[in-house]
Amino acid sequence: MPRNDTAGFADTDGPGASPPGPAGPGRGNVLDRGVRLLRAFRPGEEALRLTELSRRTGLPKATVHRLAEQLVGLGLLQRAPVGFGLGIGLFELGELVPVKLRLREAALPFLQDLYEATHETIHLAVRDGLDVVYADRIRGHTGIDTPARVGGRLPLTCTGVGKVLLAWSGQELIDEVLAQPLPRLTAHSVTDPGRLADELARIRRCGVGYDRQEAAPGLSCVASPVLVHGRIVAALSISVPAHQAPPARLAPAVRTASLALSRVLSRAGPRR
């Protein structure tokens, strides 16, 4: 991975720039601005022009250009004919993330077993704040489009895996989520706090949670938790077209796989 002197990653917008102030449009420290630049890219975009990067980040074009050149030197961006694209250094760093090194590799045989048993789309997901982050995916034979992609995020409350992760994440987090306006991705998304609280209680009792066209029209799923020494670390799910048989028929399969993965991870080492 290319290296550069990080002292050159200057925290100014040019000669005579004002000292850093509170974060806001065009402000924030250099790390914050660098991350905003990297997060400006969306799935399927190989490169972005400076003008578009400036628009998405709220940073001046001169600042974007200087940061982008420094990120190129670090291997996190690369030059492209029409601007800049994400660099191979991000891929190298991503391969070192623990969710890849331990969880994803341990889960892969169980994802494959679920796929072979159902030929439906299989997901492995973890929680980050109030979002689901999808760690792995096997696309099913039905070819139905899902809003989830590996590395992508969705609200906890609009997905089967998200509701499962939330149900086992403790009452403090549940209270925090219920105290906020609940996001609506489709007309079926649960936006009533009382209804969601009841559903989370059922998930804890039954060991499975459902998404009934709440993240995307025409898509349903059933999910189950992966627990290590009683602590939620991930969730598995099977997604099916909503017009097929109810996803509840797949609940035993996903529950069996999640329990087996939980045992493997629990034996692998002490609780962290």
Compact description:
The chain is of the alpha+beta class. It has nine helices and eight strands. It folds into two domains: 6-93, Arc Repressor Mutant, subunit A (Orthogonal Bundle), CATH 1.10.10; 98-268, Beta-Lactamase (2-Layer Sandwich).
Describe the protein.
GO terms for molecular function: DNA binding; DNA-binding transcription factor activity. This is Transcriptional regulator, IclR family. The protein has 272 residues and is of the alpha+beta class. Helix content is 39%, strand content 19%. It is built from nine helices and eight strands. The longest helix is centred in the middle third of the chain and has 21 residues, at 98-118. Residues 1-26 have low confidence and may be disordered.
Task: Please report the total strand number as a whole number.
Answer: 8
Largest sheet: 6 strands, antiparallel
Query: Strand-and-helix sequence, N→C?
Result: HHHEEHHEEEHHHEEEH
CATH superfamily of the largest domain: GAF domain
Give the overall average pLDDT: 82
Distance between the termini: 30 Å
Cα-based radius of gyration, to the nearest Å: 21 Å
* Portion in strands: 15-25%
In total, how many domains does the architecture comprise?
Answer: 2
Into which percent range does the helicity of residues fall? 25-40%
- Strands side by side in the biggest sheet: 5-4-3-8-7-6
CATH architecture of the largest domain: 2-Layer Sandwich
Structural class: alpha+beta
Q: What is the overall number of helices?
A: 9
Low-confidence runs of at least 5 consecutive residues = 1-26
What fold name stands as the CATH topology of the largest domain? Answer: Beta-Lactamase
CATH class of the largest domain: Alpha Beta
- The dominant shape is globular
Organism: Micromonospora carbonacea
Pfam families: HTH_IclR (PF09339), IclR_C (PF01614)
GO molecular function: DNA binding; DNA-binding transcription factor activity
GO biological process, one term: negative regulation of DNA-templated transcription
